[in-house]
């Protein structure tokens, strides 16, 4: 483990240490499951205080880049959940089921709201009419992994506002109440930082990288039933594809 | 524009302003093309110095979240490049061509390197044998958008190490020298921060969110011809899919 620090730099030494370790993980010289040098060894090698090394490790712990295992040390902890973009349309819940990963879903907000212009347009409902806003936090193995924000067209699945969504699949419930199958979804993915508000819920610092999915779900081309965003904690979630050439 | 700051907080005020503006962009109350309040107005409303507001704006400028237009103000600048994951396999260059976006590609490194265990395994070549390492920077409209790192199996496309890759499509060149079509690619996508080393090349601070694609490209199931990573600047690049249900 070769860490470069410059004590004359404007950047605090603990940040330099964290940046240097992060670079090694991204560059592949530190890989999944590798153990970091002990705090004592880093202090000695870099001639810095124990507090400085701890602050550096804390940054990486908060980002989910490393994990502490009591009595064993600090280990590189890499992405461990996949979501295939080649299969048929699956909800994240169904995808986790398919990977035999157990998860819990906690409802944070569930309320009827009046549609603004953007949401009215996406759900093809009149401006000011009510839709169901649903905000949920999903954890896998106690790791707060995704924040799910759904806006649901209640005229297409009446009664959905009264469902208890703790640990229930939204897609299944929509199909049950609409008494029809979901047809397709259009999605976009981008990398952002999690920001203050969502970071608070996921217990991550605002600057943590996140994958944001924005998705519109349709019963048919003219019947959008749900419009939502999913914020996936970075370094924990993989999208996968296999694409053929020509 | 309603910015919350807490002058008693440990977080510097300029960071709080940047976080608050970022949250508004992510939350949708500030959208593509919206103009931010002028620096004077923000100073007045928040009772902070001009320098503090400038530092906040600088953070967002560096992240590519906003753009300054001389004499007009500072504007929210959102993702503007798409990459479809439903089409046939396309290189990023081909995808940009399809969107009629002009770009430049600059070679940063191009050299033969001996394969370590991981690369040997991915390219199905002996450990220690040579492969072509190619590092390129691609800009769209003067925006440094992606950093491309390729590892190429030179036995499958002899002579590729001598090609001048400034503004040439790698996929086309591989197919020309291998005298065969590429068959398919397996890819994964995840959100990370850009890190120090790559941030320097893309002129971004280490904490900038980025989408990392890791891709293995095959001539046939047993002939991997390229293994690479593409680092896409966050907030600038969209992946898109349309998936059918059942």
Can you describe what's shown?
- Chains A, B: Residues 11-79 form the HTH gntR-type domain.
- Chains A, B: Pfam families: GntR (PF00392), UTRA (PF07702).
- Chains A, B: Keywords: DNA-binding, Transcription, Transcription regulation.
- The structure is a homodimer of 246-residue chains.
- With 246 residues, chain A is α+β, with helices and mostly antiparallel strands.
- The first copy, chain A, folds into 2 domains: 13-76, Winged helix-like DNA-binding domain superfamily/Winged helix DNA-binding domain (Arc Repressor Mutant, subunit A); 81-240, Chorismate lyase, CATH 3.40.1410.10.
- The first copy, chain A, contains 7 helices and 10 strands.
- Chain A has helices spanning 13-27, 39-46, 50-62, 92-98, 117-123, 170-178, 196-202, and strands at 66-69, 73-76, 81-84, 103-114, 130-140, 143-152, 184-193, 209-220, 223-233, 237-244.
- In chain A, the strands form 3 sheets. Chain A has a 6-stranded antiparallel sheet with strand order 4-5-6-9-8-7. In chain A, strands 1-2 form a two-stranded antiparallel ribbon.
- In chain A, α1 packs across α3 and α2 (39-46) crosses α3.
- The first copy, chain A, is elongated and about 65 Å long.
- Chain A starts with 12 loop residues before the first helix and ends with a strand.
- The relative contact order of chain A is 0.13.
- The mean pLDDT of chain A is 88.
- β10 (237-244) of chain A pairs antiparallel with β7 (184-193) of chain B.
